[in-house]
Amino acid sequence: MMYDFDLFVIGAGSGGVRCARIAAGHGARVAVAENRHWGGTCVNLGCVPKKLMVQASEYNDLARDSHGFGWNIAPGHHDWAALIAAKDHEISRLNGIYVSLLEKAEVTLFTGTARFEDAHTLVIGPGALAPDAPVRRVTAERIVIATGSAPDMPSLPGIEHAISSDAAFHLESRPQRVCMVGGGYIGIEFAGIFRGLGSEVDLVYRQDLPLRGFDQDMRHGIHDAIAARGIRQHTGRSPVSIQPVGDAYEVRLDDGSHVIADCVFFATGRSPNVGALGLDHAGVDTVAGGRIVVDGTGETNVEGIYAIGDVTNRLNLTPVAIAEGHSLADRLFGTGHHPRSWSLATTPKAVFFSPPLATVGLTEEEAARDGIVDIYLARFTPMRHTLTGRARKTIMKLVVDQATQKVVGAHMIGDDAPEMMQGLAIAVTAGLTKADFDRTVGIHPTSAEEFVTMRTRTRVTDRQAD
Questions:
Q1: Stretch (H or E) spanning 325
Q2: What gap in Å lies between CA 232 and CA 364, rounded to an integer?
Q3: Can you name a GO cellular component term (predicted)?
Q4: What are the start and end residues of each CATH 3.50.50.60 domain in the chain?
Q5: Is the pLDDT of residue 466 over 50?
Q6: Residue 313 confidence (pLDDT)
Q7: 5-45+81-151+271-333, CATH topology level
Q8: Which of 205, 232, 406, 415 is the most buried (most CB within 10 A)?
């Protein structure tokens, strides 16, 4: 059978665009459909605008910190509308770049919502970007689902008064009082953004510590950093209802307490974006909240249909989606080309709070399940804050497998932690040992040099003995 396209990608986020471009570069006839945002969640409603807003939130602190160095810079009034306009301008520029990249690769673009009619046929109809788009039907030998994820909103009385991260990027004004629900990446990052810009923030989360799944020392460190930022934490609690009180909202918690806020923001997880795909028409299996099941090659249970990125709900990070898309395109169309491989097990991660957290490899708890580990831990006041007087600590940690002496995990809270961790991720991926770190000369004076000067073991951990 002759198909309209060799490959059709549903979703023009980071993973889908990379897959389409690489496949087209190998000579495949490729098309992409996007119904909402060229560039996907990361560019439009995720990591890019969020990072810009984190940076905006830090200028107040920088102005105050300058006094310790002899400057008399005074914090001024923050113009929320100006920030949002500048952010939107940059996002529009990036949208154009994504479209241009696809066009230069000679990828056919469809604006609209793509839905399966069968395993090789898609119907493309109106979507948010093109509400009046005509209905078109196309066929493809292979189809890649790269539709990402969307915020979860719990079912509780008054939830219609709350917002998710999607809406937070487009608020007309900055709320003076924010109740943030959720102790993961998004909740912590937005709590820091609003607090840095001058809002009062209450952070509510179910665990005793934020960032479930992260290294325990880092969780304690971020808990302390959140408090030092002036954010009120309501730990071990969950909201049970939201109701209007005048121009504000009362959020009732399960311990009987309440929070009064002008904005109630839920950051309690995301789910795969599969509702409009018509997966049942193609026979594609999903589990656990819509997650598309794939094998090691990215293929679903239906031959010729693949899924990459957040829609598989495995490791929901933009660089992972890009890696999956690139590898898939190489495997499918890179004749005589060795597919590029990535070490997903050592994918570095960052939480852009102030100060930020970054990590790569195993936590102490994970590493100890496989045997005895040596822990090297440093906690200190960074040089800048010896003059500013700000109560901000840097925490750095290496997790070393005792038997092999390989550094299997690196973790840090402190200024520029994400920038440092990218380099450390190379070392952990390469399987370098503690001796390799020790024989590396540091750059002085920096915080980064601590990673190569931690000579004294802090403790030995063996969870198997528990």
A1: helix 318-333
A2: 28
A3: cytosol
A4: 5-45+81-151+271-333, 154-267
A5: no
A6: 84
A7: FAD/NAD(P)-binding domain (3.50.50)
A8: 205
Are 264 and 162 spatial neighbours (Cβ–Cβ below 8 Å)? Answer: yes
The verdict on whether residue 147 carries a ligand-binding annotation is yes
Phi and psi angles of residue 293, each rounded to the nearest 5 degrees, phi first: -85, 130
Judged on CB neighbours under 10 Å (0-12, 13-18, 19+), 399 is buried
Question: According to the model, what pLDDT value does residue 236 have?
Answer: 97
Query: How do residues 414-430 score in pLDDT, each as one tens digit?
Result: 999 999 999 999 999 99
Cβ–Cβ < 8 Å for 174, 81: no
173/197 Cα distance (integer angstroms): 12
Question: Burial of 314 by CB count in 10 Å (0-12 exposed, 13-18 middle, 19+ buried)?
Answer: middle
pLDDT at residue number 213: 96
187 among the known binding-site residues?
A: yes
Q: Region 141-146: what's the mean pLDDT?
A: 98
> Which CATH number, 3.30.390.30, 3.40.718.10, 3.40.50.300, 3.40.630.30, labels domain 348-458?
3.30.390.30
The class of domain 154-267 in CATH terms is: alpha beta
Q: What amino acid positions are annotated as catalytic residues?
A: 444
Grouping H, G, I as helix, E, B as strand and the rest as coil, residue 184 is coil
Q: Is 186 annotated as a binding residue?
A: yes
The pLDDT score that the predictor gives to residue 464 is: 55
